[in-house]
């Protein structure tokens, strides 16, 4: 379970998160929607301890993420993250990309790491690309590699930050399909997304972010189809 | 009565080879030391804040902009004047290495800075530590990116090593000057020396270009 409790976060004078609370129980998929600069990415970064917080608390599997005593590198093994940028390691093959972290972070043997990497690559439909260099692949394939690379660490949670925003429209589908598969398998996910159809159909709940607060949160279909908050209505009418 | 000058002969081979050997030695020393120091400083500059950079940058700017020949003469005169005269090879190696370092540090800095923050964050998000990220991601990607420019600097160091002759190091140019003095055959000798530099440089720069093409993909 991920539990975000009244988190405040500022960059200098700019307060980006103004008291955000969100509980995501295991197995749930929450989509986060909202305008540019509303703090969606920052929230994910705070959950992953890439950014610090000013006040409040974030618990991941009951571990206090921002406590000094927490080993953040160890914590991040439980939190897979995929970004808008593909971030494939260009000097490694697809297989090496996915096997690197299991090998050097989890100290698995080479064979063991390769085994897991292969399985996750097949999982996302890249079973025929093991020895290819990622720069030779389409954006959609690179993004699926990023997902497989995160999955190879056997995370309990996946944090996805607009993973389809940098893709050509015709490649969005294959990545969303992969995420849908993960959701069906019961992965706990927080997805920041601009894909309203995905948010509605794949997630359990949708949170609408507005200027650093969650303005509305509820059952996915209800928030997307019949938003209660005026701000959500305005936002949705603009993006549709 | 014999002429004061004696023509070039096979007996001079050993002398010429010594010159060649010395040119290669000091070039290799300068490139290796300059590369290692340049890598460390380039990394430090890519990682550190403004103040450190301004300080470092000033020193490096001086090393880069004062002509090498002046640095060589100043340094060897200086160490002589304070009572620690150095062997020309040692003095030349020190100056040429620092000079190389100054250029290499910019090359490496550019390489390390070319690895995006987002790429490094992605590595950290997999649980990799700071140093694992440096070692497995930032260094290999950065180093690959700078290979062609590294080669460019290395090549110019080989050529610049000729200047170390001014402080009395018997590298190729200086041996050939002495041979010219004795034989009065400047054309033959200088053409020979030119060919030597070409033979060393051309394959390297050719290799560099092909690397560049390969990595542009
Ligand atoms: N490292 C940083 N330093 C300073 N300001 C930052 C930093 N990261 C984000 N911000 C600012 O914080 C605000 C929220 O950024 P954030 O990236 O969380 O927004 P977002 O909701 O993800 O927007 P988008 O939809 O454009 O990705 C923005 O105004 C941004 O400029
Ligand atoms: Mg964002």
Overview of this structure, please?
- The complex is a heterodimer of chains A (240) and B (217).
- Helices cover 38% and strands 26% of the residues of chain A.
- Chain A is α/β, with parallel strands linked by helices.
- Chain A has a domain at 90-155.
- A 6-stranded mixed β-sheet of chain A has the order 6-7-8-3-9-10, sandwiched between helices. Chain A has a 4-stranded antiparallel β-sheet with strand order 2-1-4-5, with helices on one face.
- In chain A, a hairpin with a 2-residue loop joins β4 (55-60) and β5.
- The radius of gyration of chain A is 18 Å and the shape is globular.
- The relative contact order of chain A is 0.17.
- By secondary structure, chain B is mainly alpha-helical.
- Chain B has a single domain, classed as Orthogonal Bundle (MetI-like fold).
- In chain B, α1 runs parallel beside α4 (88-113).
- The radius of gyration of chain B is 21 Å and the shape is elongated.
- Chains A and B meet through α2, β6, α3 and α5 of A and α5 and α6 of B.
- The structure holds adenosine-5'-triphosphate and magnesium ion (MG).
- Adenosine-5'-triphosphate is lined by residues 11, 16, 34, 36-42 of chain A.
């Amino acid at each position: 379970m991920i539990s975000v409790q009244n988190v405040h976060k500022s960059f200098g004078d700019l307060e980006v998160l103004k008291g955000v609370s969100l509980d995501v129980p295991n197995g749930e998929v929450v989509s986060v929607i909202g305008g540019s600069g509303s703090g969606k990415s920052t929230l994910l970064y705070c959950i992953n301890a890439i950014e610090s917080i000013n006040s409040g608390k974030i618990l991941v599997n009951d571990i206090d993420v921002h406590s000094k005593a927490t080993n953040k590198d160890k914590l991040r093994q439980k939190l897979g993250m995929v970004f808008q940028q593909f971030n494939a390691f260009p000097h490694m093959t697809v297989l090496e990309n996915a096997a690197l972290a299991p090998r050097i972070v989890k100290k698995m043997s080479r064979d063991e790491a390769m085994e897991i990497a292969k399985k996750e690559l097949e999982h996302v439909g890249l079973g025929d690309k093991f020895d290819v260099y990622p720069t030779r692949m389409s954006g959609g394939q690179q993004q699926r590699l990023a997902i497989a690379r995160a999955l190879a660490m056997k995370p309990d949670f996946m944090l996805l930050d607009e993973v389809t925003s940098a893709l050509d429209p015709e490649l969005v589908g294959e990545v969303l399909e992969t995420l849908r598969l993960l959701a069906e398998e019961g992965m706990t996910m927080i997805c920041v997304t601009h894909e309203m159809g995905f948010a509605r159909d794949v997630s359990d709940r949708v949170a609408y972010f507005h200027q650093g607060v969650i303005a509305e949160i509820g059952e996915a279909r209800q928030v997307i189809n019949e938003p209660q908050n005026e701000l959500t209505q305005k936002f949705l009418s603009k993006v549709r | 009565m014999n002429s004061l000058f004696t023509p070039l002969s096979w007996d001079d081979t050993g002398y010429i080879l010594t010159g060649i050997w010395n040119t290669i030695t000091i070039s290799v020393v300068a490139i290796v030391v300059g590369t290692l120091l340049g890598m460390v400083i380039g990394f430090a500059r890519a990682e550190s804040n403004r103040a450190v950079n301004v300080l470092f940058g000033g020193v490096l700017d001086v090393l880069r902009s004062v002509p090498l020949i002046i640095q060589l003469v100043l340094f060897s005169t200086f160490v002589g004047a304070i009572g620690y005269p150095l062997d020309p090879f040692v003095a030349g190696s020190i100056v040429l290495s620092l000079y190389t370092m100054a250029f290499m540090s910019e090359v490496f800095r550019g390489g390390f800075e070319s690895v995006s923050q987002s790429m490094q964050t992605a590595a950290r998000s997999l649980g990799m530590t700071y140093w694992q990220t440096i070692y497995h991601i930032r260094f290999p990607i950065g180093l690959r990116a700078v290979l062609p420019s590294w080669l460019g600097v290395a090549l110019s160091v080989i050529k610049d090593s000729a200047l170390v002759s001014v402080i009395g190091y018997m590298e190729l140019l200086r041996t050939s000057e002495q041979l010219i003095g004795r034989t009065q055959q400047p054309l033959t000798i200088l053409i020979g020396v030119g060919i030597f530099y070409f033979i060393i440089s051309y394959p390297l720069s050719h290799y560099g270009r092909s690397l560049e093409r390969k990595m542009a993909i």
